[in-house]
Specification:
Radius of gyration: 22 Å
Protein name: Cation:dicarboxylase symporter family transporter
CATH class: Mainly Alpha
Oligomer: single chain
Distance between the termini: 27 Å
Shape: globular
GO cellular component, one term: plasma membrane
Number of strands: 0
GO biological process, one term: dicarboxylic acid transport
Number of domains: 1
Largest sheet: none
Keywords: Cell membrane, Membrane, Symport, Transmembrane, Transmembrane helix, Transport
CATH topology: Proton glutamate symport protein
Organism: Staphylococcus pettenkoferi
Length: 426
């Protein structure tokens, strides 16, 4: 125990990651052991998810109550949504360009590829279709932003309705003045208590990381990876390009180095990669970006919304996967069809928030609209977990940078605070 205390948490997580890979390779094929290892990862992830809603609600309500202007909140919202729409569209277009250049699906014999089971995802897509009240998922998403029952939204963990109520509640606290002080004190105390819980939960991160990585390697092995290595390389390469070049350019425009953001988030990126869950780092991400120079009212507003509307990595992957399957089946997609694919993915990805296995479900819906055989997804399901790990990291980077973009546009990004925080990491 004394030795563990001397090893920093990021190093513990790295060691757990390496050990997870080694043990996973040694136990490959023994899938019956997955049920004994995976629960440790699920417990860790559940602990994190348990405190996501209190953090989002308390921090957002407090931040909005301190802003006190509905016009200012509306301006934040408009800028955030516009930026998210632009950057995710760029991600989708970039994925299509990379898929056209490197053609990962050309020359593959689909009959020789291992097939996965997509029946669960098809069921989720069907349920989402049946649950649509207006015949269009995007319209449903907009309507459902306003919760008909707050407690139902809290129970289901839907972020958008909770964000809406928190913003409205924060404006109400601001409007009633001094009468709101006891409520604000309660929210402040709750937030402090929850962050204490987060610090304790994060100490279990190495166990969670080991469990997730180990079971992933045990399950898919090299048999699923090697036949689709070209697709894997194209996806990973395009995501590295997107983060370094596209997000790097956006960061440069804001006077920030993208590698500085990676530096302060290295532990969170490792955790997000291992767990394939952006939620696992949401609370600490809000805290770190505030320390990096983005005001609390912006980080607590922008990051939770980004978890629904700004999934850059997922958007990039979906566009490559769509072209990949079309190429594999020998389908030629002209410029017009590819533009339609961009528009379809833009809408489908926003309208499927909260659906289990959202990336594959979005693709099933998109394939149906574009007349691409959905059965092609069964051929890439074997490496989807690995791709999910990578795209989760890109989603985290995109949402982190978005707080700086909005803060910079409002003229409230604190560069000195950023420099001091970076120096503390040296």
């Amino acid at each position: 125990m004394k030795i563990l205390k001397k090893v920093s948490l990021p190093m513990q997580v790295t060691i757990a990651l390496v050990l997870g890979v080694i043990v996973g390779l040694l136990l490959y094929g023994h899938t019956e052991l997955v049920n004994y290892i995976k629960p440790f990862g699920d417990i860790f992830l559940n602990l994190i998810k348990m405190i996501v809603i209190p953090v989002v609600f308390c921090s957002l309500a407090l931040s909005i109550s301190n802003i006190g202007e509905s016009k200012k909140v509306g301006r934040y919202g408009a800028k955030t949504i516009i930026y998210f729409e632009i950057i995710t569209t760029v991600a989708i277009a970039l994925g299509i360009i990379f898929a056209n250049i490197f053609k990962p699906g050309v020359g593959l014999d689909k009959d020789k590829l291992p097939k996965g089971d997509i029946s669960t995802y098809e069921t989720n897509a069907k349920h989402a279709e049946q649950a649509s009240s207006y015949g269009h998922h995007f319209i449903d998403t907009i309507v459902n932003i306003v919760p008909k029952n707050l407690f139902e939204a809290l129970t289901s963990g839907e972020l958008l309705p909770i964000i809406f109520f928190a913003v409205f509640f924060g404006l109400a606290l601001s409007a009633i003045g001094n009468k709101a002080e006891p409520v604000k004190s309660f929210l402040n105390g709750t937030l402090e208590a929850v962050f204490w819980m987060i610090n304790k939960i994060l100490k279990l991160a190495p166990i969670g990381v080991f469990a997730f990585i180990c079971t992933t390697i045990m399950t898919f092995g090299a048999s699923a990876l090697l036949p689709l290595l070209k697709l894997l390389l194209v996806v990973v390469g395009s995501m590295i390009f997107f983060v370094v070049v596209v997000l790097g350019f956006v960061a440069w425009l804001c006077g920030v180095n993208i590698f500085s953001i990676m530096k302060i988030l290295k532990n969170e990126l490792l955790l997000a990669f291992s767990t394939s869950s952006s939620e696992s780092v949401l609370p600490i991400l809000m805290q770190k970006m505030e320390r990096f120079g983005s005001p609390k009212e912006i980080t607590s507003f922008v990051i939770p919304i980004g978890y629904t509307f700004n999934l850059d990595g997922s958007a990039l992957y979906q566009s490559i996967a769509a072209i990949f399957v079309a190429q594999m089946y020998g389908m030629h997609m002209g410029i017009g069809e590819q533009i339609m694919l961009i528009l379809t993915l833009m809408v489908a990805s926003k309208g499927m928030a909260g659906v289990p296995g959202v990336s594959i479900v979005v693709l099933i819906t998109t394939f149906s609209a574009m007349h691409i055989p959905a059965t092609g997804l069964a051929l890439i399901i074997g490496i989807d977990r690995i791709l999910d790990m990578v795209r989760t990291c890109v989603n985290v980077m995109g949402n982190s940078l978005s707080t700086i973009v909005i803060a910079k546009s409002e003229g409230v990004f604190d560069k000195q605070k950023m420099k001091d925080y970076l120096n503390s990491y040296s």
